[in-house]
C-alpha cells in the first residue's frame, strides 16, 4: 500500500490533486480542506490510503496521518464508502468526529452530507469502542492570505455539490469568523457547511 506521496504539486482540481512522484503524476482524491493546504508548484507530503476495487485503484489523500487513520476507520462502518468518509472529514475535524461518536451526538453526525439518522446511529454503534478520545492536538493550517480563503472555501463547497450561489452565501455568513482571528481554511469550510446544513 502507498502510505504517503511526496513531490511537487502539478495540478489541483475540484476534488483531487496531481502530485509528481519520480516523474509520474499521481492523482490523489482529497477533501477541500486538504486541497486548501496545497499550492501548485510547491513540494507537498500527503498521507494516502489506497482503496482497491475490481475496476480501480484509487488514492485518497489527507493533511496528516490522523485524518488518514480516521478515514480508514470510517470505511469499516457498514454503508460508509470512501466518498462519504471524505465528506465526514470535510465537515468535521478529527477531534469533532471522535467527540460526536464518543458522545453519541447524532445531530453533529447528520450534518455530514449523505449521513442520515440511521447511518449516524450505525456509525456510533460500530465505531464507538474503536475511535478513541479527542486528542486536542490537531491544529488547523493558518490562512495563507487575508482574503484567499474565500475562493478556497467557495470552490470546496461547489466541489461537495452545493450551487455557486449557496456557496457564495455561506462564505458571506462565515466571514465574521475570519475577521475574528486566524481560523484555518478547513475550519472555515466546516463552518460554511454547518451554515448550509441549517438552511
TrEMBL record:
Residues 145-199 are annotated as: Domain III. GO terms for molecular function: ATP binding; four-way junction DNA binding; four-way junction helicase activity. It holds the Pfam family HHH_5. Residues 72-91, 107-126 form the Helix-hairpin-helix DNA-binding motif class domain. Its main location: cytoplasm. GO terms for biological process: DNA recombination; DNA repair. It is found in: Cytoplasm. It comes from the Bacteria. Keywords: ATP-binding, Cytoplasm, DNA damage, DNA recombination, DNA repair, DNA-binding, Helicase, Hydrolase, Nucleotide-binding. One of its GO terms (cellular component) is cytoplasm. Has three domains with a flexible linker between the domains II and III and assumes an 'L' shape. Domain III is highly mobile and contacts RuvB. The RuvA-RuvB-RuvC complex processes Holliday junction (HJ) DNA during genetic recombination and DNA repair, while the RuvA-RuvB complex plays an important role in the rescue of blocked DNA replication forks via replication fork reversal (RFR). RuvA specifically binds to HJ cruciform DNA, conferring on it an open structure. The RuvB hexamer acts as an ATP-dependent pump, pulling dsDNA into and through the RuvAB complex. HJ branch migration allows RuvC to scan DNA until it finds its consensus sequence, where it cleaves and resolves the cruciform DNA. Belongs to the RuvA family. Homotetramer. Forms an RuvA(8)-RuvB(12)-Holliday junction (HJ) complex. HJ DNA is sandwiched between 2 RuvA tetramers; dsDNA enters through RuvA and exits via RuvB. An RuvB hexamer assembles on each DNA strand where it exits the tetramer. Each RuvB hexamer is contacted by two RuvA subunits (via domain III) on 2 adjacent RuvB subunits; this complex drives branch migration. In the full resolvosome a probable DNA-RuvA(4)-RuvB(12)-RuvC(2) complex forms which resolves the HJ. NCBIfam families: ruvA (TIGR00084). This is Holliday junction branch migration complex subunit RuvA. It comes from Kribbella flavida (strain DSM 17836 / JCM 10339 / NBRC 14399).
